[in-house]
């Protein structure tokens, strides 16, 4: 298969021109696919994107969602995206940076969205994930909770849920925790 | 036949190579067109060919031994891992006193002790830490890896050396063939990748099923299995208790913590089966390794490497699978290349004047008969030259539009560029990602980007 004479020539030649070339950065197939996803983004009105590491690092970016309807109207929620070189074989890692009182997002920022884990398919893209995140704010789901207390309140007392969301958005982390912890026993007595 | 109580003498050097020499010195009907049988071929191969083995684990240990015993004399091995006590049952080059040392260094030393005349250079580092230039010295790369990411990286490096002529034919001198081995329990594969001729790793990455991922809410709310409890401790509980602290799967203390948390949770939900080794298995996604699977797959890989290099027989075309779970099955499938593969495909050749600006280049793509691409975004080796969208990136890259491509590509005579945009496909405009080979008219092909010279 390989022509040994050519190998021999190539060796000589390499010896002669050793050290002449600058290293070339390798772009993974995942980075290229991400480049396509990003250049074709069709962001909903409620959503914006930023690249904290500049124009050449597309693998780490932030999505900012400002819901224009529903319980979370008026809030600003920042998600960090970390995309691995094996994208789209692997889904992006998404965390919610903003502390939020939400049945499907826990206080550590873990997001329970099926397409980010068990239902991820390489044909999906960044746009799909962004739509999924928007949906979490317009239709929080009490069936697959990550924040158990919030889910119980949403299911059993939507008015209280709405009030808790407003309180949490106004007060930040402290009140999210307070809401999360203080309302749970109360709900069980309802 | 020697009687059982009589120790057989260690094979003398010519004895050891007798069968190999027979294979390399006699003509045959199934040989490659370039095969040049001669009694000295083994020595010639041994002195001229440099082989890189990627990975010095279960498969890597076998590969180094098999390649050294197949007549290869100049080997390099690269692995970032150190030896763990749990490796010793199958990574047979390592001993108890080696625990904690570099796998690559110990493996190289052991094989050199046993096979005289073989020189193995170890590299105790990550594959990404090496300059691309490092990889150019090898005639062939043999992979004994367990991760898709690492395979994909080496594949892109090896395919990156490939150049095509103006008829889109691979230039033989730029070929960097690979043999990829992989094992999982009782199953394994050995495949031959000749970039430009057989499918590369990326052409059929779909062969590797994505890792099973449990829904986070199941982990948080309704665990049903031991694995659910372990993943809960690993993915949710760790961050809750250690905010900001990076979890290290190789740190025994961290793993012990995950194990005890998983155990607590399993007890709470009445689930059995959480053990320390199962915890390690789930967290590190380890499938029990079977020593004989490694041996069988490695033997197939070493043989393919020898055939590729010497031409003494036809290589597997192109994907051998082994399954020892239910009886023993070996099968060879011929996969086909993705003609438009971004990694190994030729891409479309575009000739530019050194004065052509990026915006003129984008205009050319709209009119190019093979592309007809509108609204192109352009990227080159990780540098985004122009992004049509989103707005923030468009603004950041807009100043490049007026700059000559020759300058943006740093004065290279030829370069690979990738473009995304709406391109025509069967009369319809569809979003497409394409590879382009840009060549500048009137620039000598002697610049820093070239990997080979034409003869
Ligand atoms: Zn390919």
What secondary-structure arrangement, pairings included, does this model have?
The complex is a heterodimer of chains A (190) and B (455).
Chain A: H1 4-16, H2 29-39, E1 47-50, E2 60-65, E3 77-82, E4 93-96, H3 126-138, H4 148-156, H5 158-171, H6 173-189
Antiparallel strand pairs in A: 1-2, 2-3, 3-4
Chain B: H1 13-16, H2 18-25, H3 41-48, E1 50-54, H4 58-68, E2 74-78, H5 103-114, E3 119-123, H6 132-136, E4 140-144, H7 148-160, E5 178-184, E6 187-193, H8 216-221, H9 226-241, H10 252-268, H11 276-283, H12 291-310, E7 319-323, E8 329-333, E9 348-352, H13 358-367, E10 374-380, E11 383-386, H14 391-397, H15 405-408, E12 414-425, E13 428-440
Parallel strand pairs in B: 1-2, 1-4, 2-3, 4-5, 9-13
Antiparallel strand pairs in B: 5-6, 6-7, 7-8, 10-11, 10-12, 12-13
Helix pairs in contact in B: 4-12, 9-10, 9-11
The structure holds zinc ion.
Organism (chain A): Leersia perrieri
Active site (chain A): 112 (glycyl thioester intermediate)
Family (chain A): Belongs to the ubiquitin-conjugating enzyme family.
Can you walk through the features of this model?
The complex is a heterodimer of chains A (190) and B (455). By secondary structure, chain A is an alpha+beta fold. Chain A has helices spanning 4-16, 29-39, 126-138, 148-156, 158-171, 173-189; strands at 47-50, 60-65, 77-82, 93-96. The longest helix of chain A is centred in the C-terminal third of the chain and has 17 residues, at 173-189. Chain B is α/β, with parallel strands linked by helices. Chain B has three domains: 35-209 and 289-333, NAD(P)-binding Rossmann-like Domain (Rossmann fold), CATH 3.40.50; 216-284, Ubiquitin activating enzymes (Uba3). Chain: B, domain 2 (Arc Repressor Mutant, subunit A, Orthogonal Bundle); 348-440, Ubiquitin-like 2 activating enzyme e1b. Chain:  B, domain 3 (Structural Genomics Hypothetical 15.5 Kd Protein In mrcA-pckA Intergenic Region, Chain A, Roll). Chain B has 15 helices and 13 strands. In chain B, the strands form two sheets. Chain B has an eight-stranded mixed beta sheet, sandwiched between helices. The longest helix of chain B has 20 residues, at 291-310. The radius of gyration of chain B is 26 Å and the shape is globular. Classes of the chains: A alpha+beta (190), B alpha/beta (455). Chains A and B meet through helix 1 and helix 2 of A and helix 3, helix 6, helix 7, helix 8 and helix 9 of B.
């Amino acid at each position: 298969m390989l022509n040994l004479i050519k190998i021999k020539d190539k060796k000589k030649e390499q010896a002669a021109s050793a050290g002449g070339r600058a290293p070339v950065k390798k772009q993974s197939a995942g980075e290229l696919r991400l480049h396509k996803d990003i250049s074709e983004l069709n962001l909903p009105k409620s959503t914006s994107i930023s690249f904290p590491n500049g124009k050449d690092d597309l693998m780490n970016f932030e999505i900012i969602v400002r819901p224009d309807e529903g319980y979370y109207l008026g809030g600003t929620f920042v998600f960090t995206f970390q995309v691995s070189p094996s994208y789209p074989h692997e889904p992006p890692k998404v965390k919610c940076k903003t502390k939020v009182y939400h049945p499907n997002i826990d206080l550590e920022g873990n997001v329970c969205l099926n397409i980010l884990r068990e239902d991820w398919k390489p044909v999906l893209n960044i746009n799909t994930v962004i739509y999924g995140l928007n949906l979490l704010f317009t239709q929080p789901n009490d069936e697959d909770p990550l924040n158990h207390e919030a889910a119980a309140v949403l299911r059993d007392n939507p008015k209280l849920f709405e009030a808790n969301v407003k309180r949490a958005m106004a007060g930040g982390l402290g009140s999210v925790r307070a809401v999360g912890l203080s309302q749970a026993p109360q709900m069980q007595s309802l | 036949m020697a009687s059982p109580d009589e120790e057989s003498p260690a094979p003398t050097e010519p004895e050891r190579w007798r069968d190999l020499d027979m294979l390399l010195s006699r003509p045959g009907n199934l040989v490659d067109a370039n095969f040049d049988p001669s009694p000295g071929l083994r020595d010639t191969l041994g002195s001229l060919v440099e082989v890189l083995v990627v990975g010095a684990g279960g498969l890597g240990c076998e590969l180094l031994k098999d390649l050294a015993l197949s007549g290869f004399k100049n080997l390099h091995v690269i692995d970032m891992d150190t030896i763990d006590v749990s490796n010793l049952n199958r990574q047979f080059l390592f001993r108890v006193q080696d625990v904690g040392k570099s796998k690559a260094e110990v493996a190289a030393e052991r094989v050199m002790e046993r096979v005289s005349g073989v020189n193995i250079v170890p590299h105790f580092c990550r594959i990404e830490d090496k300059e691309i230039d490092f990889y150019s010295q090898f005639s062939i790369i043999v992979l004994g890896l367990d991760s898709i990411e690492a395979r994909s990286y080496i594949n892109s490096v090896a395919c990156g050396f490939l150049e095509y002529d103006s008829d889109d034919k691979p230039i033989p001198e730029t070929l960097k063939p690979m043999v990829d081995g992989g094992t999982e329990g009782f199953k394994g594969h050995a495949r031959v990748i000749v970039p430009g001729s057989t499918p590369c790793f990326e052409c059929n990455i779909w062969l590797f099923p994505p890792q099973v991922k449990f829904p986070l809410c199941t982990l948080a709310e309704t665990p049903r299995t031991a694995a659910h409890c372990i993943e809960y401790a690993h993915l949710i509980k760790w961050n809750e208790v250690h905010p900001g602290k990076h979890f290290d799967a190789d740190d025994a203390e961290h793993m012990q913590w995950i194990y005890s948390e998983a155990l607590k949770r399993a007890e709470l939900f009445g689930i059995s089966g959480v053990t320390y080794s199962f915890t390690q298995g789930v967290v590190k996604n380890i499938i029990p390794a079977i020593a004989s699977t490694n041996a069988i797959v490695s033997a197939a890989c070493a043989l393919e490497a020898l055939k590729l290099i010497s031409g003494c027989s036809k290589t597997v075309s192109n994907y051998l699978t082994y399954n020892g779970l239910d009886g023993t099955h070996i099968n060879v499938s011929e996969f086909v290349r993705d003609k438009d593969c971004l990694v190994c495909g030729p891409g479309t050749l575009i000739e530019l004047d050194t004065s052509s600006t990026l915006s003129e280049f984008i205009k050319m793509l709209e009119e190019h008969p093979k592309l007809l691409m509108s609204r192109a975004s352009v990227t080159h080796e990780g540098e985004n030259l122009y992004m049509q969208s989103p707005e923030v990136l468009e603004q950041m890259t807009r100043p490049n539009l007026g700059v000559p491509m020759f300058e943006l590509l740093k004065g290279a005579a030829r370069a690979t560029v990738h473009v995304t945009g709406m391109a025509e496909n069967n009369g319809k405009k569809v979003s497409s990602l394409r590879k382009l080979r840009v060549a500048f008219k009137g620039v000598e092909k002697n610049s820093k980007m070239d990997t080979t010279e034409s003869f």
